[in-house]
């Protein structure tokens, strides 16, 4: 009934009426509250966004077009030029109205500005509705919780009334009222006030001041920061007309301009952010470059202090005497492959020159501090700078110029999230979205577009899980790439951390899952997909494939049940996107071939026993990002520190089902995460470590990178595999236990909403989440002690079971070596 009412309103041409009628009919039918009413309105807004543009083109009355022509002719003798313009406008409008609608992956393509305006107004309206819905829903929920919870502290009810009645007052007033009501806010008021206002004594409690006073520490080693993926701002140097000449050198990534372009010119923004899918280089007519200086990655959104990345660490280092001359942000274009960074931007050559300049000026060796994917960049540099195929510095360059590498949350052996993003355009963050938010997200950018866009990023395969089945579970023979495993793996092949043997499990969907008729197994032939054929690729479209794979390739993904280990998943993605597979093999190595004793120098490593220098496997830079195939520098005093968070549920493997609609199953992303699959013990928190939440198996880690990738090499690999550490470097592991906000846990039930809010509030210096770890007070303390004159070297601090896990991984890696012979 609701759908019929909305459709009738659409045909009458009143978009706003459609939204109101849709919501009112649903409310009357189910007697819903304000939450369901607003949800229905949001759903109707999303419906109108796709239906309205088509109506604007096809339903223009003939009488209106005739009247416009008569009007133009009548005034032609008085204003010939104006009449001519009007005629052209009327003719183009009539032609547009007569043309059939063109289907795209996101709905109906607009051919005039009015249509585009209506579409984005609808999208903006949907966002406003969701925000209003959230506010209307959370406060009643808190009220119900406080009234029904008998074990809640007395001050909670007073605090709730203080907050709800104090909206509009200053944060300081509300904070004082909460304290007067009996709330213990000491856990939330260490260095900054609860509501973001500066505390008068905050500077006296900062980590930098404490380290300076306790150790009498001052600046010593110059520092180079190597940021991770997406944290460096990108600015426009050359753009197409849709981006506007006035935006030259404006940040198209990492600023509010990004959101404006995404909302008002979505296709334009996506085309500028993507690289050319055929070679992972700049598209024709587009040049984006990384911002320079500390401001390139200190705060993700310019001066919005709550979006800090490196800002807190820079501030604490300044407290002990560091300046912009002794700190350098080695910003880079995080989209392109690492060897392309050198070819296009001379990135590693400039980095080498800067380090040598530091040695000449400060008479001290330089510390690298790398976060997330920045570790892969820094590790690649260590091999590049020594190799005759790279910087040509020789085996003693690192010993002469670098003091150490501090790895903060780096995915040393890769991250599963990279697989899910490429395979289906999803990850845990999107799979957990409520249906309304998921619909709005899909209205802006579909899963197919996410997958296609990320496949143009040459840097993303640097985070593909390395070590194959030896590390991530599955048949060991696939580690060397000699075979693929897609269904033959069993429980005996489970990963050492307890995760399923299948990295990707494509299962059968539940009954009544499909939305199309005559669909009983999800397999689609070319005849079924003919009606969903995409339009030809535009001449300037450098990232959309718009070409659905043939039946054989498409149904490789759709066949279920099927269990694939990490090696088989790589083969599947490569078959669906052959060019992506070719480029990945040219730039990266994913295996676990340990070097031999005569190969502890970078230039002595043979290349897959292949003497043909023209083959892909001969390219030396392929191995430089893989710590299982390239040794550490020959620098005995080099410090290698791995600092990472633990105790937070992290995505580890995935459960998929065929997509629910035929249009999706006929696309290049025919499967999706099975968000209906949940497995956890009675009384266990939703999304706990070891459980399955929204179709994703969770393990220990920092919320983004699993523990086995964070800690294996530092805790065991570089100690145990002697050929990977010929100089006898002693890596150090420092683990930080994740802590949540007590007030949030006591007020909200165990839901995905609470998990979102935990990360959004950033933990007040106690969080060990992947990004929030950059503001963890214990980590800041350890970094300041390591790089300053504190004269206290850090030692291991382990709180997880990484030691036991690492021994099992090492045994599997040793066993896998026979497949490389």
Features:
821 residues; alpha/beta; six-stranded parallel β-sheet; six-stranded mixed β-sheet; globular; disordered N terminus
Q: Can you list the strand order of the major beta sheet?
A: 7-3-8-9-12-17
Main sheet?
6 strands, parallel
The stretches of 5 or more residues where confidence is low (pLDDT under 50) are: 1-16, 26-37, 45-60, 96-113, 135-157, 162-172, 184-204, 482-488, 608-617
Number of strands: 17
Radius of gyration: 29 Å
> What do the pLDDT scores average to?
75
How would you classify the quaternary structure? Answer: single chain
Determine the N-to-C terminus distance.
Answer: 67 Å
- Strand percentage: 5-15%
Helix-residue proportion: 40-55%
By secondary-structure content and strand pairing, the structural class works out as alpha/beta
């Amino acid at each position: 009934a609701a759908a019929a009412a909305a459709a009738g309103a659409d045909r009458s041409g009143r978009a706003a009426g459609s939204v109101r009628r849709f919501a009112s009919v649903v409310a009357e039918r189910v007697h819903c509250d304000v939450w369901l009413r607003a949800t229905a309105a949001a759903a109707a807004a999303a419906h109108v966004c796709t239906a309205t543009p088509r109506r604007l083109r096809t339903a223009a009355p003939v009488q209106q077009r005739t009247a416009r022509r008569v009007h133009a002719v009548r005034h032609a003798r008085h204003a010939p030029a104006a009449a001519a313009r009007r005629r052209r406008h009327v003719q183009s409008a009539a032609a547009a109205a007569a043309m059939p609608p063109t289907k795209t992956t996101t709905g109906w393509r607009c051919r005039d500005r009015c249509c585009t305006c209506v579409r984005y107004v609808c999208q903006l309206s949907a966002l406003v509705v969701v925000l209003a819905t959230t506010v209307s829903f959370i406060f009643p929920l808190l009220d119900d919780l406080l009234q029904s919870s008998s074990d809640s502290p007395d001050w909670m009810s007073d605090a709730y009334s203080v907050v709800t009645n104090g909206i509009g007052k200053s944060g300081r007033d509300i904070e004082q009222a909460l304290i007067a009501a009996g709330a213990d806010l000491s856990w939330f008021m260490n260095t900054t006030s609860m509501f973001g206002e500066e505390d008068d004594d905050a500077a006296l409690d900062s980590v930098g001041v404490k380290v300076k006073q306790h150790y009498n520490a001052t600046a010593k080693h110059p520092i180079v920061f190597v940021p991770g993926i997406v944290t460096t701002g990108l600015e426009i140097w050359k753009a197409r007309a849709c981006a506007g000449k006035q935006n030259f050198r404006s940040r198209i990534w990492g600023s509010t301009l990004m959101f404006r372009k995404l909302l008002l010119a979505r296709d334009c923004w996506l085309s500028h952010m993507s690289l050319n899918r055929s070679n992972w280089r700049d598209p024709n007519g587009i040049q984006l470059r990384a911002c320079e200086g500390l401001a390139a990655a200190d705060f993700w959104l310019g001066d919005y202090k709550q979006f800090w990345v490196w800002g807190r660490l820079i501030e604490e280092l300044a407290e002990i005497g560091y300046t912009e001359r002794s700190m350098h942000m080695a910003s880079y274009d995080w989209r392109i492959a690492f060897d392309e960074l050198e070819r296009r931007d001379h990135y590693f050559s400039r980095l080498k020159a800067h380090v040598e300049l530091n040695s000449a000026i400060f008479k001290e060796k330089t510390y690298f501090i790398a976060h997330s994917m920045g570790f892969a960049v820094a590790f690649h540099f260590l091999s590049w700078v020594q190799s005759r195929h790279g910087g040509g510095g020789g085996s003693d360059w690192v010993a002469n110029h670098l003091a150490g590498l501090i790895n903060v949350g780096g995915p040393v052996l890769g991250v599963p999230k990279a697989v899910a993003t490429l395979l289906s355009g999803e990850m845990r963050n999107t799979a957990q979205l409520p249906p309304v938010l998921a619909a709005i997200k899909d209205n802006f950018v579909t899963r197919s577009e996410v997958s296609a866009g990320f496949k143009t990023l040459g840097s993303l395969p640097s985070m593909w899980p390395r070590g194959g089945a030896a590390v991530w579970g599955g048949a060991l023979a696939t580690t060397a790439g000699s075979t693929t495993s897609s269904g033959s793996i069993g429980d005996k092949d489970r990963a050492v951390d307890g995760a399923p043997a299948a990295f990707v499990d494509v299962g059968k969907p539940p009954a009544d899952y499909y939305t199309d008729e005559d669909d009983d197994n999800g397999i689609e032939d070319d005849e079924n997909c003919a009606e969903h054929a995409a339009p030809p690729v535009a001449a300037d479209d450098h990232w959309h494939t718009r070409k659905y794979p043939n039946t054989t390739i498409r149904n490789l993904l759709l066949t279920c049940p099927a269990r694939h280990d990490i090696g088989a998943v790589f083969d599947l993605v490569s078959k669906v996107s052959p060019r992506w597979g070719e480029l990945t093999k040219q730039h990266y190595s994913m295996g676990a071939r340990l070097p031999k004793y005569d190969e502890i120098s970078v230039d002595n490593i043979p290349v897959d026993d292949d003497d043909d220098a023209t083959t892909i496997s001969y390219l030396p830079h392929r191995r430089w990002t893989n710590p299982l195939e390239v040794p550490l520098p020959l620098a005995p005093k080099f410090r290698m520190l791995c600092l990472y968070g633990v105790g937070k549920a992290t995505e580890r493997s995935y459960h998929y089902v065929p997509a629910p609609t035929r249009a999706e199953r006929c696309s290049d992303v025919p499967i999706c995460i099975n968000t209906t699959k949940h497995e956890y013990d009675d009384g266990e928190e939703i999304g706990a470590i070891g459980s399955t939440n929204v179709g994703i198996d969770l393990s220990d880690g920092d919320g983004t990178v699993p523990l086995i990738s964070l800690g294996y090499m530092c805790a065991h690999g570089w100690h145990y595999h002697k050929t990977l550490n010929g100089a006898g470097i002693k890596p150090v592991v420092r683990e930080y236990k994740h802590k949540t906000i007590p007030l949030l846990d006591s007020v909200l039930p165990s839901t995905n909403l609470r998990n979102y809010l935990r990360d959004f509030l950033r933990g007040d210096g106690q969080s060990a989440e992947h990004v929030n770890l950059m503001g963890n007070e214990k980590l800041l303390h350890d970094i300041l002690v390591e790089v300053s004159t504190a004269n206290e070297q850090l030692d291991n601090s382990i709180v997880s079971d990484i030691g036991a896990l690492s021994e099992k991984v090492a045994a599997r890696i040793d066993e896998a070596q026979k497949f490389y012979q």
